[in-house]
Amino acid sequence: MMILVFAGEYFAGPAWGGELVLKKEPLFDRGLNQSGGSCEGWFTVPDGKDVPDLRDFQYYFCEGFYSFHLDGSAGTEVTLFGEFFFGKGQGFLSLKKMDDRRVWILDLEKFPPNRWTSVETSPDTGAYEVYYHPAPAFEKNISSIKWGAFSG
Question: What does pTM read for this prediction?
C-alpha cells in the first residue's frame, strides 16, 4: 500500500493561482561570486506563501539584479520589497495580473514612480497593473515577498 502526502506549502498548481519565479541575474558577465560558484539562479514562491526574509535564497548575497515571471489567474497579486519583513523604506513593486497569461518583468525599475500603471497584453507578456515605489538599487535588493492585495 502506497500513501502519498503532499505538503500544501510547496504545491503551486493553477488552482492556487500560480507562482512567482524570481531570477537573480549576474551583475556582470563574469557570473561568478567570490567562492567561484555560479551566481545566477531561480527562486520559486508558490501563491500564498509569503517570504519575509529572502536570505534563504542560495544566491541572495551574490552581486546581481532580479527579474521575475508570475503565473496565475486574473486578480493574482504580489508585492516585492527591497527590505526584509515587508518594509517599504527600500522600495517596493506591487503587481496585479489582469488576465491568465504569464507576466514577465525583466526591468523592475522601468515603471513610473508612485502611481499605478496599466500594461496591456503583448506577445511577450500578459496584462497587469503595477505600482512602483523606487529606492536606490531596488532591483538588486529584493528582500521579501508578500501575496495578496496591496495595502499602500
Answer: 0.82
